[in-house]
Prior knowledge:
Elements: H1 10-24, H2 28-36, H3 39-51, E1 59-64, H4 70-78, E2 83-89, H5 92-102, E3 110-114, E4 127-133, H6 142-152, E5 153-164, H7 172-192, H8 196-207, H9 211-220, E6 224-231, E7 236-243
Helix pairs in contact: 1-8, 3-4, 7-8
The chain binds S-adenosylmethionine.
Amino acid sequence: xxxxxxxxxxxxxxxxxxxxxxxxxxxxxxxxxxxxxxxxxxxxxxxxxxxxxxxxxxxxxxxxxxxxxxxxxxxxxxxxxxxxxxxxxxxxxxxxxxxxxxxxxxxxxxxxxxxxxxxxxxxxxxxxxxxxxxxxxxxxxxxxxxxxxxxxxxxxxxxxxxxxxxxxxxxxxxxxxxxxxxxxxxxxxxxxxxxxxxxxxxxxxxxxxxxxxxxxxxxxxxxxxxxxxxxxxxxxxxxxxxxx
Length: 244
Ligand code: SAM
């Protein structure tokens, strides 16, 4: 059965999301590679190229919904020894996988924090940059999360968000729809024994605002110089916004 997602109260929506990532935490990284054909790596690398963390001055970075640390590691590898990354996620299981993956490689340049994107446990203007990658669509109240992103950024700070988008190339859209509705849940069942979390995933992609609508939400939260770049025929969009 499908989650009747639009009728689910917001707090229950978060509970559903938490169940999904609790179930898949240990296999999350394998699933990511399988389902995107490895493309998620290229998308994340494009985000980090766009961010260009400085190599020779302090840089405080916050990666929200950071899960198993994939984005954080890339930011740390691209930055210098004064680059510090805080990985925040609502799900302790995902963070545990991230801690295991990090090992002692980055020392105290990486910190894992359990918390909610809608109520960040940080002071105002603490961070130079904020990223959220394939995470914002899971947050029940996106406007709250964007207000929090704005609050914790310094003036001149930047938000980058990578999220699934809407394929609008004729022909490709039908293939993508068939792929996401059939292949993704099937692969999910093969690897984790359960297709349901992946039906939820596909459904949440379908419901996420268009890049234009999401850009408006960023502006409403106070961000300026808002722009986005579609990638891979619009399968994903990279959004950029500044706190000026
Ligand atoms: N950013 C990682 C990546 O791209 O590999 C993980 C993305 S994963 C699809 C989505 C993550 O969002 C999960 O780890 C989940 O626990 C987290 N999440 C869901 N709701 C959240 C919330 N309200 N606050 C913080 N994190 C949340």
